[in-house]
Amino acid sequence: MFDEIKDYFRGKSVELTPEIEKIIDDSLERRSIKKGDVLLRQGENCHHTFFVAKGLLRAYTIDEHGKEHLLQFAPENWLISDRSSVLFDGISEQFIDAVEDSEVILIETGFFEKLSEISPGFQRFNMYALNNHIRHLHKRINLLISASAEVRYMDFIKLYPDILLRVPQWMIASYLGITPESLSRVRKELARKNFKPG
Amino acid sequence: MQTKNIELVLAPPAPHMVGDGFRVHNFIPGGYHLDMQRMDPFIMLDYNSKYYFPATERSRGVGVHPHRGFETVTIAYHGKVAHHDSSGGGGVIEEGDVQWMTAASGVLHKEYHEEEFAKKGGDFQMVQLWVNLPAKDKMSAPKYQSINNRQIAKVQLENDGGVIEVIAGDYKMTKGTASTFTPVNLLNAKLNEGGTALFNFPVNYNTALLVIEGKVKVNSEEVVPTDHFVLFQNEGVEFTVDALEKSVVLILSGEPINEPIVAHGPFVMNTREQILEAFNDYNTGKFGYLED
Hints:
The complex is a heterodimer of chains A (198) and B (292). Chain A is α+β, with helices and mostly antiparallel strands. Chain A is 47% helix and 21% strand. Chain A has helices at residues 3-11, 18-27, 83-88, 111-118, 120-146, 149-159, 169-176, 180-194, and strands at 29-33, 38-40, 48-54, 57-62, 68-74, 79-80, 95-98, 102-108. The mean pLDDT of chain B is 97. Chain B starts with 5 loop residues before the first strand and ends in a 9-residue tail after the last helix. Chain B has 292 residues and is mainly β. The radius of gyration of chain B is 19 Å and the shape is globular. Helix content of chain B is 8%, strand content 50%. Chain B has 3 helices and 26 strands.
């Protein structure tokens, strides 16, 4: 039922004992959603972390002029959530919706803590995942305040190798904090340097 | 000669849109028992059954996208498609024409309804077939074979039965117009009512047909209506198609390449590493650049 997330945990060296498997089977929920379906809205309380078994989700905010700002993409095997809402019981500032038809596994608040208490392997994984997330956020902040459009783009394609083919250009520009025209310039310049017609 | 019997007959699966210009039934690899391994070297077949697109000012189609590792074959039955690529190439595929594009190491292109056709609107009917390339040719230079209907080799059938267009491979000693990397037979049988055609392919070739127009009887027993797909067993060599009414039938038969297939979106390679390389090459501009 939850094969994708079990494989994901195993891939992170978490040993899945029968007890852990039972907790997974009993407490997770699977949902098929369509492109455009919204899992979280600004102003709501977020009660779940979402694991993407198939498809693609994104998290974004909308400013007072109605403009979208993309915070994160979550393709297969990614976790996505609004931690400030889940863990600090706050009202969410984000939207999370489906960019493609997706299969999502819903993880309730408390799941990670519960497994961390009974499994040292899971606790190690959870700490690593959290620190890795912080590392990425720091890198992202630094790139947004200091790096050129090209440097941001090069970092983006390393993190998300196949997203360029899956979403419209404006979404990538929004994630990078640049205009679509400037993304287009970066890609044109890369092609000028690297394209050698056969 | 031993008869090649039917393995299964498939009704057209529910259509989906590719971009906003192609309303297709996917037979390969999505159809029941029609996965890439079974149909090798045919790895994808999208069929836009005859569909009326109303007039529009902005041409419908599919935006910029890459391909690597295989060939795309577009057969136009009704309507016209214009295409452009990142090397500056382009053209129009007209009714009756075939475009055989060897994407190989990489093509970045877009495909739209041709402007005049889009403005007038009309019936649109096409097949897009992907033919896999052997590992040694996957990274060869891209090329096009733009084949207009007049250039396609033709075999007239006896008793005014109709004509066989030999797009690739051969039929009754007549060689097909397109060159291929591995043995592939691709034929359009345009049969008059009552016309009959006999086909003969090696036992191990993966073989199928698609009824584009009309209604036919296969091996004198199975009636196959318009838009239905027939897969043949890999036993026997010979089958017959009798036209119960004026019909057009696409016939495909190819020698399996029998190499590992790793497919992800528009890339079809032999290993996962080659797929990651394809994504990286696309992301870093090695396929060129093209405005949407």
